[in-house]
Write a structure and sequence with these properties.
This is HTH dtxR-type domain-containing protein. This protein is α+β, with helices and mostly antiparallel strands and 231 residues long. It has 2 domains: 139 residues, Arc Repressor Mutant, subunit A; 72 residues, Ferrous iron transport protein A (FeoA) (SH3 type barrels). It contains 9 helices and 8 strands. It is globular.
Length: 231
């Protein structure tokens, strides 16, 4: 491996980073679900990575990346998302195909090669799914929320969509992509969310809606700001 880590070790650091393990403690159960691995196997790998100085693991509290682990997790994420951009923008791969291929490429790309890809592509800031491409420090939009956390009647801009092929194939016909504007028309307590796009109303299950990151539309934010100022 380019980093001296195995593919499996890199995948663990990447997954912990994705779950914001640079900012909080990630539960073993949460990580096991994300990686689709049994919890005892997760614990075994965490202990191995802790011995190498990539993370701090506490039996009941969970796991958090050290500075060394954060840097390595970020590098894997960066290689993955730049590989997706290369596949999508240069090789014209369909957006539903790039995640799986990038999962393989991320382990073989050198960090220097990833930097060259970034230069060739003129410094992209997001992957095709809308997720930020980190460059030296974690990138977060302070206004970003899960669609399931939105409020009825509010309008949102889609920041990112899930990467899995099945989810993308569900969202593409609905034209729900990064940059799309949608309204959360109805939000029942248990059943599917009702999304409005123009004159169309679409039902989205909570499982897939929870993977879509959005932020309030600028026009709504400006309206709220004026309303508060006028009080």
């Amino acid at each position: 491996m380019m980093s001296g880590l195995t593919e499996s070790e890199e995948e663990y650091l990447e997954a912990i980073y994705r779950l914001k393990g640079y900012d909080r403690q990630v539960k073993v159960s949460e990580l096991a679900k994300n990686l689709d691995v049994k919890e005892p196997s997760v614990v075994e790998m965490l202990k191995k990575l802790e011995n190498k100085g990539f993370l701090d693991y506490e039996r009941y509290a969970g796991v958090k990346l050290t500075e060394k682990g954060e840097e390595e997790g970020m590098r894997v994420i960066r290689r993955h998302r730049l590989a997706e951009r290369l596949l999508c923008d240069v090789l014209d791969r369909d957006i539903s195909q790039v995640h799986e291929e990038a999962c393989r490429l991320e382990h073989s790309l050198a960090n220097e090669t990833a930097d060259e890809i970034a230069r060739v592509l003129d410094g992209p800031t997001t992957c095709p799914h809308g997720n930020p491409i980190p460059d030296g420090e974690p990138v977060m939009d302070e206004d970003a929320i899960k669609l399931t956390e939105g409020e009825e009647g509010e309008e949102y801009i889609v920041l990112s969509i899930p990467e899995e092929r099945e989810d993308i194939q569900r969202l593409l016909p609905l034209a729900i992509l990064p940059g799309s504007e949608i309204e959360l028309a109805e939000k029942p307590s248990l059943s599917a969310l009702m999304i409005k796009r123009g004159e169309d109303r679409l039902a989205l299950g909570r499982d897939i809606a929870s993977k879509i990151m959005v932020k309030p539309c600028e026009k709504r934010k400006r309206y709220r700001h004026r309303a508060r100022a006028g009080r």
